[in-house]
Amino acid sequence: MSEEDAANLGFSSEQQERRRIWLTKVAGYRAFREKMVSVDSLLDQLDHDRAAAENTETGLGEQSVEDPVLEDDDREFERLIRQSWRLHDDDVSKHVGKRSGAGKSPTGKRMYHTTRTASEAKAADKKDNLHRTAFEFLDRNTRIVKPSPGKTTPGKAAPGKAAEKAGSPAKRRSLITRADLPTRDELRRHCEQNRIKQDQMHVPIDKTVYTGDIIELRQVMKVDETPFGAGVVTAGVIQKTTGRFHFNALLANNLVLGGRETRLGFVAPGALFDPELMRISGVSSSDIDRVLEYAQELRDYEAEHGHESLVSAYEAMQLQVAQNQSQQASVTTSASDPESDIRAAGVVDEDSSDMRGDIGSVTTNGSTAEDGSEPITMVLLRTIPRTVRMFQQRAEQLLRSHYRELGEYWNMALARGQRTVTVDTLAELIFGSDDGSPVSDEARYAAYMHLLSDSLHFIPDHLALFVTGSFELRPRKAVEEIEGVRDMIRDNAPEFAQFVDKARALVAFAHKQNPTSPLRTALDPTRESFEASRTCRLTGWAAKDEIFERRPPPADVMTAAEAAVVEFSRTDQLFIGVLRQYVFYHNAGYRMGANPYDALVAPVIKKMHYYAGCDVISVSRFLVDLGVWPHWFNPKLNTRTLPFGSLGTNKDLYTVRGAADLSARLFLEDPAVTATRSERETRVHRGLLETATKTTPPVRDSLVTRDSAGVAIIDKTKFYGRDICEEIRHDFGDLPVYTIDDSATRDVDDGVSIETVVGADGQPQTWVHVHIADPTAFVHPGHLVAESAQQQGVTLYYAERQQYMLPYNLTVQKLSLVRRADGSAVNTMTASVLLGADGEIVDYKVRPALVRNLLAVPYSSVDQVLSYEWAPKGLETFEKVQENYRNGSLVHPFKLQPEDWIKYGENTPPPSPTDAEALRTIQRLVRRHYELRVRNGSFTKLNTERSFSVGVRNLPSPAHNITGPAFIAANSTRPQEFPQLRSHHGIGVNSPAHAMVGELMLIAGRAFARFATEHDSVPLLFRVQQPPNLDVLSGGIPGLPSALADELTAEQAMSARDVWEAVGRRARASDGIISMKLFDEVRHMMNPSVFSPKPGPQTIMGVVGASGYTRATSPIRRFDDMVGHWQVKAQLLREHTRAGDATPWYWSLDDMERLAPDVFRRNLLADQCMTLNEDFWSLTLMRRMEIQARRGQLMLPPAEFYDANSPLYYDLPWPYYDPAKPGALTWTAVVDNRDESRPFMSLLIHGLGVRAMLLPRPVDPACLPFAGTKLRVQVMAIDPAESVLIVKLAPEAFQPPETPKFWCSQHASSRLMTRYPMTYSPPENM
């Protein structure tokens, strides 16, 4: 940050000076930790500092601003270094002989390292007198266990007397032997407690921060730096946004920061209101009384309203700017508008979705004292930074005084077989007292800082660290590999030089072999076109980027024959493994700690001279050029919990998955084949199953885990010997069952049928049966297949392949609802419902069943016979549905296959008249249920479907063991080099067939939920979305136009209740469908939809009954659906057999409370992975088209393919492209939301469904267009690997006439482009 930027942000001169001091300390800390400066060099630096200080005192010199003299109370960093020097001088002096020659380093783990030799150590002894003061300081400030009189250390003689008798001077003992390390018993108890806590950990989904908490926030805004990494801030929460995971916090430097809980690492609950902490922070007694009084008012308000808020974020920022302006009075003479300063300061997290003052009139509840004294807001803004600073200083003091015990913990815990540790258990071990009293929040924060800063030895939970506080201990082998690579790079070992030479040759060959690859080609061919593409004509704004001058390939590049025989040595594989792990940790959401491979990447990448930086984009491209990865490989899909690809991950996941597949294969195998298997192969199979058994929890007793006799617990490698529900299965005979899905689907998991019977009153009743695949007829909940399914959570549908949750062969042969060739029955779990005239469920049944007459009818067939009476706008007829699918598609390259010419439904005949009438009857029945939900408040925006397919299925993936450049010789003529890509994005998912199936699934889920609540409260994973708290939310932001201005007054538009009710009225009038414009008005009010062990409302779905809703219709695709089936079956068996089991279920209510967060996060992660996959391929297609279009090489589609008379055609780029005039393509996009906190506008690209950032955006938020506004844009930057797409406005002639001319207003400058450079390759003709 420059001095000008600091002044603009309101830093006083004193604050700027302290920041420079801190950055100086950071630089020294990193040099000490990463570069391993020798002890003598550090001692010399101490002498230099002392001499500089003496010169300053005598007037002989002036201390540089960049190297300031620190005050006594600001020398924490120097103390830490001096302590480390002393400790290691003592350690090395005991091993001088070993370090003089080729001997190894002293045994035992060293947290810090020295490079002194024996001769240097002797010379250093002469400096002892010069540093006596530092040693005395260490003796006073280091925790040392003083031996009691008369006691000696086991195995050693008592010091002192023996030395005196020998007549030799007393030697200094190593502080390692005197450090206050945990005893064996303490460590054993710690490991046991940690395992118990891990097994019984209850991680609530809705755990959140509250006003008054002190938090540590990462990767939000780099306004501060600490020795633990950039972008780390400690702050106090001043305002929590109801219904969302957003909050506002006040930093120690008085900046207000917006954040999200996904960026949190640590929380100290209520620490801001701790009177003792405020007192030692220097807060006056009167201010403490005021804060505590307000805190009590806040708690009372929370008890009444279920929400708390300290101050309005908007008000807090206005007050902050007022403070900053007064501080800047001596720097600048011009005063600016506070609101514009807030926006210019950029104090808002770019990823936050809301910075609204959500408390409305509640803010004034305690803002001003009744006696007219100073507003409480000003008191808080004065006291909170002090409290936060003191909290951080106390934690750092604990960290310094116990750093030796913390530094040795990894070694000791790993030796005990421990694999994970939590912040709380480590704090109890290191800082806990003997009386068992709880450790302080400062101690917890110190433990957290140690675990997070030592990224070499500890891996944080990247999903919810602030919730779990859990860290994984990195295996010793992985640590040794990192240290080995680091040593080779530092010493410039021959192995490293050989790898660099080999890599240079391979990269040069790759670039020369295929210089026009889209991965290496710039978007623009010339400098002029490059600069033009970075300038927006409508606004005059231009992006500023540095052009990287890539070194041209050498003339003597290796031949293809030479490249084909290149092999990677063992050390080569180590370097490659480090680079892959670097990308892996970046992609795994490694936002909570430093990437341990950071320092190992730059020395490799910089020596290639082909890449502009040393970030993840450059490393990914280097691995592609090296032939390790193919260019189509998407590294974003690799995570620690959902492995997909070649990057390293938890090996236990692969072991369990392999064992699950093996057990399924053995189960399906012909006995004749089993008999011919060799003894060796049988032994290998047995070994894999035994290994997986040891790494998974034991099978628990329940009615669904007992053997055929109903006594013993079934083995986790065995499937059911018989159908445990055989006696209670209902046989539906030849009743037609319609399985409605895509024609290519193999894992069909649901079907529907109707049946008319005579009721008890003698009247006919029409029942709707939803038949669901039944994997639990074969798999018990303790089986390895079930364990593997829980680890993955869902089936992952990627464009290039699928990763099934259950073994594929088991799914296709035994589970999928398809007609069997021999006419045999298929097991199902069936939910049957009787719907009343008002749409409510009058009666229901949930039972195991058998079906035979399975009829596969694709969506396209069903859409031809259903009624379009209730179809949304744009889909009023079947022809409109066909038009939507065709004109919402993009293909590249446009070399069409015969199937591409087939319109939606042309190759699928309609059902027979009898089946068609049955389907229409089902449609009319479920329509009643939909109308009921709309009356109950359900509404949604019109859904858009995005699908993507790759011309070559099952593209080869990179291997785990890289022995050579497997993909370096891939020629561009091979089909997998540039496979044909097909994308569709439109509203076809709202067709009558899709709408009917979706409603059926919801009805079945409600039936399962009613069964659970009405039968002994069976524990299930319910889907719950609580209604918004309309009493504390605000409807809008003052000064911004409202989408309901034609219905609500300005005052009503600020009321959340009025806005919510108005949107609800419009939804009911439009059949539950609202526009994006209206949806954006209530987006911030909605609570998240989560899993819960107890039923609750599903507000947005209009499910308001006491029984709630659960998912149960996709058990071969979702693990939570399987859980529901097991639980319901256990209850049915209990009722049928009259078993005496008090808890017949596999999961109790307590188990469900622990299972719900895990399932929720795995589902969330799976959705993110599938979205990233679609984004990757959509942006890949877009980039290919842009490269060719800007060179006039893009092939136009056949004239007959699109319907040029359809308005949808003009939302594609083709009407605006002329091959004779090469240039950027013009894309149609819609505004996704009107978020005034971001420095860009968020858009959705038509035809691809990918998000884009529009730059620049208007300075005045009132000029932002409403969500749903259609725009035409052109690409400035695109990177598929990072899912980045930055666009500008297309010329005004291309803009839709109905689009407001918001570009005529003043636009804000943005530095976002420097974070996402367009390309790392220069234009060809520069």
UniProtKB/TrEMBL annotation:
<keyword id="KW-0269">Exonuclease</keyword>
<protein>
    <submittedName>
        <fullName>3'-5' RNA exonuclease complex component</fullName>
        <ecNumber>3.1.13.1</ecNumber>
    </submittedName>
</protein>
<keyword id="KW-0540">Nuclease</keyword>
<keyword id="KW-0378">Hydrolase</keyword>
